[in-house]
Each structure stands twice: as structure tokens, then as C-alpha cells.
Amino acid sequence: MARGDLTDDEWSLIEPHLPLGERGPIPDLRRQFNAVMWRFRTGSPWRDLPEEYGLWSTVYDRFRSWAMTGVFQRLMESVIAEASARGRGPGSGQRGLHHGPCPPPRRWDGPRSRACGGVGEGR
Q: Which of 4, 35, 88, 107 could tie 53 with a disulfide, CB 3.0–4.6 Å?
């Protein structure tokens, strides 16, 4: 297991929410999921995926399939619901968690705003 890969406990929460393949369980599903997480954790191009995760094109195709069928959205909703049920999710007293739409940006009312044609006047 590489640094940053899912622990057994984390995998046990995620695996039930991932779809089966057309012919049954997908071989190396955990490795492919870890590869997707590695890619977004590092911000690297798909082609730079380490060999330990398999072919980059296979992982990319799996990611694209999951993204297009809403797997990540359902997974996020399930994980949030599970965390809330355990008393660790949004509204459970933890600070800094926000899972709704972003609020509109606030305007800065300083001199630069007013100097640019009055944009940002008064709040």
C-alpha cells in the first residue's frame, strides 16, 4: 500500500458504493480507486500515474465511467450521511464543514473598488 492509499476501514466504507462491472466484480477495484485519488491528490496528469496503479488509460476510463454515471456524487452523499449518523458530519458541531452551495463573493469596499468606477460601493 502506497502512502495516501485507503486503509482497510476506509475501503470498507467506500467499496459498497462502487458499481460492479458488466461481468461481475472488477479486478483491482481498490487499486483503481486509489489511483484516481492519487491523481487528484497530486494534481498530476493521468499519464504520470505511477506504474503500481496500472495503466493510466485504464484508470482514466474507470474514472470517466464513474464520473458520468454519478458514482462520486452518490459516494459523497453516502459518506456524509454515514458521518452524520455517527455524529461527525455537517451540523454535528464540527467547524469548517460546508457542503452546500458556495455563497456569492463579497465585494471589497476599499479604495481600489471605488477608484474603478464605483464598483463595490456601500454595504
A: 35
